[in-house]
Amino acid sequence: MLERPRLFGDLVTQVIRQKLCTFCGACMAACPVNVLWPAGEEPTIVDKCALCEICYYQCPRVDFSREDVEAFVFGRSRRPDEPIGIIRESYTGRAVASNTQAHGQDGGVVTALLAYALDSKMIDAAVVAGKDSMWRPKPAVATNYEQLANNAGTKYTPSAALLGVRSALYEYGKSRVGMVGTPCQVKAARRIQTSPLGNRRLAQAMRLVIGLFCMESYGYENLMRTYLADKGVDLSAVTKVGIKKGSFIALVGDTEVLHVPLKEIDDFVRQSCRQCDDFTAEYADISVGAIGSASGYSTIIARTEIGLELVKQAEKAGYIELCALAQESKGFQKVLSMAQAKRLRKAVQKPIGASSEQFASKDESHQTTPE
What we know:
13 strands, alpha+beta, Nuclear Transport Factor 2, Chain: A, 8-stranded mixed beta sheet, disordered C terminus
């Protein structure tokens, strides 16, 4: 007996209504008839479906195989002594150029790496998280340093990053794309590259995937539009937001206009983030984050041969400065500690609408294949 097709309606039932959708954009980017588009922070269908099943099998929340992805990305599966995935080298570092440091987050490493990748012709476009004047994130395609600098800095609400890859491919005519994303967006990229029904053009275009350390993201309407307004913060004037030492901060120029403990905004964490157990973007070519490094620097984890070569060549060319970060060091142990905390948080979460029996079964299955 043939199985019925798995369509967008199945994603609605299994992922969107269960509050598991990360808004990565994979389903929308891969749709061959272009009928899936964002509505708030969820995908929606706006025209007649072609019944092709492609959207369903791009979703990283559907049947994600760690073993298949690791074989594709790294050529092997992780060992038991690799709790945050496969690592070739780890460093602490920052951009050399002071203007890149100023524009970027935590030393501007990601901006500098992408700038070198563009200048060296490794990629011909970079997909980053841009924003509008009210801090609503949107994927942006950068083809030069100025565009990278204009879109630098972390945004703490989600954007459909894979739609940016689609834009680079179909609207900009680029074929070698670098993507920056949170762990869920990195998983989406790898899902597209390994799915039997993956969108081949998207899969082949993604030549570089840089992942960001991420504990959680927040709903835009709740955090940025409502909470900040209630605090008297003019979003249109804010120049930077950040998370530092357990606090959420917003700045206008060099002046802090908000500094509150993270627990004060905990209610705005997206439910999908509470179901995620990946802190360090374990399937990226390079993972980058502030944890484990001094202020103004980033921790850099080179995971693939491509990622390690980019880091080394960017240092040699004077784009970044590096210092080795031993896995036994206090800084790296902080990274491991945060990763473990995220895993433990997911372990005690119960998916929306799941029975106790369903939840127990799902949790057990993910001891070997994390979602």
